[in-house]
């Protein structure tokens, strides 16, 4: 999801390129998706939402053991970035 995601999983800002009011405090995208897809193969679904650049950077974490610092940049619906640093063992 582009934009700033609050700890309560609402969209704080950055959804101006999406139709509708995604930034409403009464709107929860994970709740809407869970309502539409409550189960998959008889298992409850878990919906997690975060900023797209953050997720992109986290997806590389398992490959970054020998890297001190890395970053992720997104260009699409908007511009995004995330910076990561290994803290050692």
Summarize, please.
The protein has 89 residues and is α+β, with helices and mostly antiparallel strands. It contains two helices and six strands, in the order ββαββαββ. A two-stranded antiparallel sheet has the order 1-2. It has a two-stranded antiparallel ribbon with strand order 3-4. It has a two-stranded antiparallel ribbon with strand order 5-6.
Tell me the layout of helices and strands.
Elements: E1 4-5, E2 11-13, H1 29-36, E3 39-40, E4 43-44, H2 52-59, E5 69-75, E6 79-85
Antiparallel strand pairs: 1-2, 3-4, 5-6
- How many helices does DSSP assign? 2
Largest sheet: 2 strands, antiparallel
| Sequence stretches where pLDDT stays below 50 over 5 or more residues | none
End-to-end Cα distance, whole Å, is: 31 Å
Structural class category: alpha+beta
Form type: globular
The counted number of beta strands is: 6
Mean pLDDT: 80
Strand order of the largest sheet: 1-2
* Number of domains as seen in the coordinates: 2
| Fraction of residues in helix | 10-25%
N-to-C SSE string, H for helix and E for strand: EEHEEHEE
- Beta strand %: 25-35%
- Indicate the radius of gyration in whole angstroms: 16 Å
Can you characterise this structure?
The protein contains two helices and six strands, in the order ββαββαββ. It is an alpha+beta fold and 89 residues long. The chain folds into two domains: 1-50, no CATH class; 51-89, no CATH class. β1 and β2 form a beta hairpin. The mean pLDDT is 80.
What would the keywords be for this entry?
89 residues
């Amino acid at each position: 999801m582009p934009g700033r995601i609050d700890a309560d999983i609402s969209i704080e800002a950055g959804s101006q390129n999406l139709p509708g009011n995604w930034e409403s405090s009464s709107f929860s995208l994970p709740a809407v998706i869970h309502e539409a897809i409550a189960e998959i193969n008889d298992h409850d679904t878990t919906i997690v939402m975060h900023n797209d650049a953050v997720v992109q950077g986290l997806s590389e974490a398992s490959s970054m053991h020998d890297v001190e610092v890395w970053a992720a940049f997104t260009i699409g619906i908007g511009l995004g970035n995330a910076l990561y640093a290994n803290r050692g063992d």
